[in-house]
Amino acid sequence: MSDDEFWKLIGLISNEDEEPDLSLLIESLEKCSPEELIGFQERFDFHHCRSYTWDLWGAGYIINGGCSDDGFDYFRGWLIAQGKDVFERSLNDPDTLADVAKSDFAECEELLYVAWHVYEQKTGDEMPSNDHQLPELGESWDFDDDDEMKKRYPRLFATFCE
Questions:
Q1: What sign for the dihedral angle of Cα 90, 94, 97, 98?
Q2: Using CA atoms, how far apart are residues 22 and 10, in angstroms rounded to an integer?
Q3: Looking at the whole model, is its pTM more than 0.90?
């Protein structure tokens, strides 16, 4: 599956509610072949890995009032659900999420597994896993240091912490 096809399918997700509505995406994925479902999951995993950064983890920490390892996975699912433009902007400047995050619940766990579930329903088998490796995060900082977080994320901090 091409990146354009992946983002077109992601564009079917409704983000009008706090939690993204995946119903139209699921309907479209149900029409895909098993190979296309694998391709969708590979593109999802690629972008999910790209968003594995301290900068985005800090943004998720502010927006959600904390962010565990699993919570960061779900936050990155939410981030992908926002679409290509928001996703790419946030990679360059996570503080731009102040324009998008509407509440202190920015998670979409279901998106991590949606293609897996459709594949299993369609084939009766588990989807083969891929070998996407998470990048090294490097040096972290204290997410509970208000001065540091305010400096790194002035707009998010003003929206969710003050």
A1: negative
A2: 9
A3: yes
- Reference 22, options 84, 119, 115, 127; nearest CA is 115
The band of 18, judged by pLDDT with boundaries at 50, 70 and 90, is low
Spatial CB neighbours of 72, under 8 Å, sequence gap ≥ 6: 52, 57, 60
Does residue 109 come out as left (phi exceeding 0), alpha (psi in the -120 to 50 range) or beta? alpha
Residue listed under structure tokens 């369609």: 122
Q: Within 10 Å of residue 99's Cβ, how many Cβ atoms?
A: 11
Query: Counting Cβ atoms within 10 Å, is residue 53 exposed (0-12), middle (13-18) or buried (19+)?
Result: middle
Q: Please state, in angstroms and rounded to a whole number, the distance separating the CA atoms of residues 40 and 7.
A: 10
* CB proximity list for 131: less than 8 A, separation 6 or greater: none
For residue 157, what are its two tokens?
A: 């901090």
**Residue among 30, 22, 99 at smallest CA distance from 11:** 22
What does the block give as tokens for 41? 């999951």
